[in-house]
Design brief:
There is one protein chain. The chain has about 140 residues and is of the alpha+beta class. It has a single domain, classed as Beta Polymerase, domain 2 (2-Layer Sandwich). It is built from 4 helices and 6 strands, in the order αβααβαββββ. Helix 1 crosses helix 2.
Length: about 140
Amino acid sequence: MKEKRKDLIKNQLELYKEKYSEFVQFNEILEKILNRMAKHVSNEYIIQARVKTLTSFAEKSLRLTILKDPITEMTDICGLRIIFSSRNEVERVSSIIEKNFVLDPTLSRSKEKDLAISEFGYSTDHYSIKLKKNSPIYNDMTCP
């Protein structure tokens, strides 16, 4: 059984290497889309974007043995973060995101709701998303 898993991971790593440039390209497009959305909310924000490294992909694939096809099942290969200075701005961009993307309800949540009333901490909305086909940005994936 271990040999079978080892072969699966080896094949997944080769596939990840082949598809890595596609992940980078997708992440760049998504960053442009989110940048447009953020500009509707504020002129002051920071966007951070990353594509999971091969090492990180390998580590997670080995650790999460429940993944039978990590390259299609892993939900965080591409990751982006928009940082605003106020909760109001976060709520406004969250509304735009919710209108244009399908949210995975099991992976999308507001971190702020995890805090007790007496706690202060990192306030964020976390989304696992897919673009809605009827979204006006669906047909504009080149995002000049």
